[in-house]
Amino acid sequence: MALLEVNKLSISFGGLRAVGDFCITIDKGELYGLIGPNGAGKTTVFNLLTGVYKPDEGIIRLDGEDITRKNTIDINHAGIARTFQNIRLFKNMSVIDNVKVGLSERFRYSALEGILHLGNYRKVEKEMDDEAMRLLKVFDLDKERDTLAANLPYGKQRKLEIARAMATNPKLLLLDEPAAGMNPNETKELMETIALVRKEFDMTILLIEHDMKLVSGICEKLTVLNFGRVLCQGETKEVLNDPEVIKAYLGDE
Amino acid sequence: MLNKKSKDNLITYAIVIAAYALFQILALTGNLSSHMKGLLVPMTYYAVIAVALNLCVGILGELSIGHCGFMCIGAFTSAFFSKVTAGVLPTAPRFFLAFIIGIGFAALFGFLIGIPVLRLKGDYLAIVTLAFGEIIKNVINAFYIGVDKSGLHFSMKNSMELGMEPDGNIIVNGAMGITGTPHDANFTVGIVVLLISLFVVQNLVNSRDGRAIMAIRDNYIAAESTGINVTGYKMMAFTISAAIAGAAGVLFSHNITTLTASSQYFGYNASIMILVYVVLGGIGNIRGSVIAACILYLLPELLRGLNAYRMLIYSIILIVMMIVNWSPKVIEWRKKTFGKVKLPGRKEAA
Questions:
Q1: Given CB atoms, is A165 within the 8 Å cutoff of chain B?
Q2: B205 touches chain A (CB under 8 A)
Q3: Separation of alpha carbons B282 and B346, rounded Å
Q4: DSSP SS3 for A206
Q5: What is the Cβ-side half-sphere exposure of residue A113, based on CA atoms within 13 angstroms?
Q6: What is the tens place of the pLDDT at every residue in B275-317?
Q7: Cβ-contact A137, A201 below 8 angstroms
């Protein structure tokens, strides 16, 4: 059964149709790539899926549930987590606290218990610590647990962002250009991390990427956007050999 | 980590208790002038409101320069209650209830003002909170409330408009404020209130809600997409901050004979002064706020003997403190020289 079904999604800014008639179906466990030239509307699609923008038309269904026009917070609770093109961590907080922010919807105690440090506080905090450490270990960040997020090297900041997204226990993970600004070695490590996330958490992933090596290396299916419209959709190999796609990327003769 | 954080908190409590013990010993052995004794309670309420403002500015990351307005509300509502019930209730329960009322009203106003204000960001939020602080002060200055046999009378014109029986008692007399609030506050109560506010804020910071609040400060877009209810947590932090400012107001009004909503105590100058305590103590550093508030409150008072040079010395000390606390070069030098000796830690400005 399809985990994410998007039908005829459109949005215009002023007179510009940023995304038009965007359709996509992602099955459970798939690793799906969204590619396209600069300004094609990829991040806009992410912002539509996560409720940052409200679509003019179209329907978004996650696991059968209609999440169109819900706000960002509710969409996260429904099961979509994301990372950002330009890393957005909680910079003045420690690595473990970044992850614990992600955990705070699942591990609850009342504000009063939090202020008094009584009741469930100790028990739940302990559970949060354990769960956060389990996640950090997966991402090989457990040694940096008390480091301020701002002081992590770039590659680890990317990893922490994914770890934080995973902490919200999503059904679908959206990665916005995870390899942006990375050198080939870091990109390779990132590919391993993404593969690991899939294996470890059985996660469905939709990612935006420019790095063709990464895309062709890990994505099973691709959707190509150009000028806000779907240019081509299907198995990675077929899509990358499509003459229209090559034209959009390399231009006409 | 939890241990280190708890240890840090305990050090803060220990510093406050040590300072309390020191002043008490000085007072008992007769080494404290009566002028100095009079400064102790104000010192505690300024420390309390500095803690409150640091929750808003340092932890939530929203610049408020109207916090004296919340202090003003706490002061007036509690003083009103205490004066009305002065002959009816014994001191201890009356003062306790005065705290509940002062804190409750300040929190209520914090909540109500927070609804429009927290939609704004940065400079705009600062300007609007400043305006609200001034509005609160000016509205209170126009209040006339009296009580007689037939009950409460209320006017916003003048005391004659109250139309009271001859035996009536004017409680709030417009710009002349409330006179004769029972003198219930003392240094010990002040220290207890300070410890409680420290307890609340420091525990909050180390809880699920506190982390959410700091996440909003660091990056509200990421906080939203992590499922954090941004508006709710902002309101929560702002309301708690206002409530603590209200507690400072209760101490204030029960330490003076005549309570007026004057600019000197509740105007924007006073709010800026508290912001100075917070900034120099280190934004987001609760312990630093307490220390800075105590030093910077006592200093100009202790320098009174130097008369004309008093404010000059005060401003030089402000500049020196700012350089020592914030200049990257000095911080580097300090780290080299003092090695592992940990001065009150500070966070990078976001």
A1: yes
A2: no
A3: 6
A4: strand
A5: 13
A6: 999 988 888 899 999 999 999 898 888 777 777 777 788 788 8
A7: no
**Antiparallel, parallel or unpaired: β A204-208 and A80-82:** unpaired
**CA dist., res. A11 & res. A17, Å (int):** 6
Q: Is A86 on the interface with B (CB under 8 A)?
A: no
Beta strands A57-62 and A2-13, pairing class: antiparallel
Taking only the tens place, the pLDDT of each residue in A109-134 is: 999 999 999 989 999 999 999 999 99
| C-beta separation of A208 from A221 below 8 A | no
Q: How far apart are CA A81 and CA B226, in angstroms?
A: 7
Q: Answer yes or no: are the C-beta atoms of A119 and A110 closer than 8 Å.
A: yes
Instruction: Find the length of chain A.
Output: 253
Provide the residue count of chain B.
350
The better pLDDT of the pair B153, B57 is held by B57
Q: Smallest CA–CA separation between B220 and chain A, in Å? A: 9
Give percent above pLDDT 90 in chain A. Answer: 71
How confident is the model over B50-100, as pLDDT tens digits? 999 999 999 999 999 889 999 999 999 999 999 988 888 899 999 999 999
A154-168, A186-200, A218-232, B141-155: least confident range? B141-155
Amino acid at B335: K
Closest-CA distance of chain A to residue B4, Å: 11
Is the pLDDT assigned to residue B158 strictly greater than 70?
A: yes
**Interchain contact B215–A (C-beta under 8 A):** yes
- So what's the ipTM on this one? 0.92
In terms of Cα–Cα distance, which of B322, B313, B289 is closest to B197?
B289
> Contacts of residue B55 in chain A, CB cutoff 8 Å?
none
Beta-carbon separation of A168 and B219 below 8 A: no
pLDDT digits (tens, 9 = 90+) for B320-343: 878 887 788 888 887 777 765 444
* Neighboring chain B residues of A114 at a CB cutoff of 8 Å: 203-204, 207-210
Q: Which of A104, A117, A187, A176 is nearest to B223 (CA)?
A: A104
Determine the 3-state secondary structure of B180 from DSSP: coil
Contact A150 B211 (CB under 8 A): no
The answer to whether residue A151 neighbours chain B at the CB level (below 8 Å) is no
SS3 call for A73: helix
